[in-house]
Write a structure and sequence with these properties.
Helix 7 links the parallel strand 8 and strand 9. Helix 2 packs across helix 3, helix 5 packs across helix 9 and helix 6 runs parallel beside helix 7. The strands form three sheets. This protein has a five-stranded mixed β-barrel. Strands 7-6-8-9-10 form a five-stranded parallel β-sheet. The protein has a four-stranded antiparallel β-sheet with strand order 12-11-13-14, with no helix packed on it. By secondary structure, the chain is an alpha/beta fold. It is built from ten helices and 14 strands. It has three domains: 106 residues, Nucleic acid-binding proteins (OB fold (Dihydrolipoamide Acetyltransferase, E2P), Beta Barrel), CATH 2.40.50; 160 residues, Hypothetical protein af1403, domain 2 (Rossmann fold); 42 residues, no CATH class.
Length: 408
């Protein structure tokens, strides 16, 4: 077997490519990496498995500055710039270039915007179907919106013009409403958007009690700019957010899956700010209406209670007068009864005293002595038994005097 120099083999391969791929072909791939240098755009094209992220094919490609200029003129520079983003599914017209030293490289001649937009739409529909199957489309919308939402956790790029519009609209509201906003910076475009936004949502969830709701804002853009907001991971994170989410991530013509899963989509950052101001205005109007209703009701209650108190006062006066009259009559009756009872008690007592007086007169010693009896005493003691008499002086007490005798 002959041994070939490397350069000869490389030249052979170059001729094979030139003979077999003489014209440009269209190829579908995903942009794995995108970088620019000296006006040229360098690409890594990859093809992944239908299920999972395993790469089954990978080739390098380049968009020369001249080709990029041609595509900008054909499709518009903004659309071309948006299509050449990492993670985009693209359909490219390419020619093959094999260099003996630098190897194989695909030269991008044109891009098919319809393919990318169609791929984005298919991805959007798949995300919607997956979220609907899990009942997530209305989960955040069913969270109660605070009556006075003033503490806001804001997810946005710190350099986004939409964020500045949102903040300015809040700060310059003509009603003087105050809002407390805290920014959670995240990429709003490109492959990092999903990862960073979901990370910020997790951070906010840990501090959920410090906020009334979450605001997601960015400036407007085309379908490719908002592609990240059709990704299933970021939409699931928004649906599962512990607080109501207000979104202003595009213009009126744009509609992402994220718009479908948040509590309310207001399209633009300025519209979100206006909505919040209107919420506070409605709350203030409601509070003023309640205040007026309370004042009117309180006045009516005061009038009713004053009338009732006057009526009660009259009833109390009448009841008191009647009670006093009854008490006077009862007191007079009790006094008469007391006097009558006292007189009867005095009469009975007097009769009893008279009886006791008669009885006492009958039992007095003088009465007995008047009938001829005598009282015998010795040494100051009455003598009732002859044996009680001792030798000495004995006194006999008669009605009209005393006799003293000497007992031997």
């Amino acid at each position: 077997m002959d041994t070939l120099p490397l350069s000869q083999l490389a030249a052979f391969i170059r001729r094979v490519f030139a003979l077999n791929l003489p014209e440009a072909v269209w190829v579908a791939a995903e942009l794995g990496q995108v970088s620019t240098s000296r006006g040229h755009t360098w690409l890594t094209l990859v093809e992944k498995q239908a299920e999972g992220d395993a790469i089954v094919a990978q080739l390098d490609a380049v968009v020369w500055a001249s080709g990029l200029k041609r595509m900008n003129k054909l499709h518009g520079p903004k659309l071309v710039r948006d299509l050449f983003q990492e993670g985009m599914s693209v359909r490219l017209q390419v020619t093959t270039s094999f260099h003996e030293r630098f190897g194989l490289k695909l030269i991008v001649e044109d891009i098919d915007p319809a393919h990318t937009i169609g791929s984005l739409e298919r991805r959007r529909q798949a995300t919607l179907e997956a979220l609907a199957a899990d009942g997530l489309l209305d989960r955040n919308a069913n969270l109660p919106l605070p009556l006075v939402p003033q503490r806001l956790a804001v997810i946005s790029s710190d350099t986004a013009a939409g964020l500045a519009d949102f903040q300015r609209q809040l700060d310059e509201n003509t009603y003087g409403f105050a809002f407390a906003t805290e920014l959670y910076p995240a990429a709003m475009q490109g492959v990092q958007t999903g990862e960073e936004v979901t990370a910020r949502l997790r951070q906010i969830a840990r501090r959920r009690h410090e906020y009334d709701l979450i605001v997601l804002v960015r400036g407007g853009g085309g379908k490719t700019d908002l592609a990240a907001f059709n990704e299933e991971a970021i939409c699931r994170a928004l649906a599962d957010a512990p607080l109501p989410v207000l979104a202003g991530i595009g213009h009126e013509i744009d509609d992402t899956v994220a718009d479908r899963v948040v509590h309310r989509s207001l399209k633009t950052p300025t519209a979100v700010a206006v909505y919040l101001i209107e919420q506070l205005l409605r709350a203030e109007s409601h509070a003023l209406h309640l205040g007026r209703s309370i004042a009117i009701t309180a006045g009516q209650l005061r009038t009713q209670e004053a009338t009732r108190l006057v009526r009660y006062a009259g009833e109390v006066d009448r009841a008191a007068a009647a009670s006093l009259q009854t008490a006077h009559l009862r007191a007079a009756a009790l006094l008469d009864e007391l006097q009558r009872t006292a007189r009867q008690s005095v009469a009975v007592t007097q009769q009893r005293l008279d009886h006791y007086g008669v009885l006492l007169d009958a039992l007095r010693p003088e009465t007995t002595l008047a009938r001829g009896y005598a009282l015998v005493s010795q040494h100051g003691k009455l003598v009732t038994d002859p044996d009680m008499v001792e030798p000495g002086e004995v006194t006999l007490r008669l009605r009209d005097g005393r006799i003293k005798l000497q007992k031997p």
